[in-house]
Amino acid sequence: MVEIEHVNIGRVPNDGQGDTPRVSFAKVNRNMAALVAALSDVQSAIGAAVAAAAAATASADQALSKEQAAFNAAFEALFVAWLLSRPTAPDGLGTNKVYRQGDASGGYTLFVTGTNT
């Protein structure tokens, strides 16, 4: 906290008890210098806080980008695994081709007839 020097103005005007104009304005100048220095400290603290917030935001954005990339890679791997797990007919589908899904005990068979037009 800034220590303010108070100007002694006396009890009544022109009673000779207050500070002289020179002393009064010297106190005013010191008060202003102290306030400017305190304001400068506050501005520095705000600047440091803004810089720290910007760095934290950049770090969070970078972490989020890594998390997004990891999610995308995992999703792609799962999607490819799912695609590869889908049954396919070794010789392709067409007229009079048998398409099997599942194992021999629990699968079903689709017999394709006709022609594709």
TrEMBL record:
Please report the name of this protein according to its UniProt entry.
Uncharacterized protein
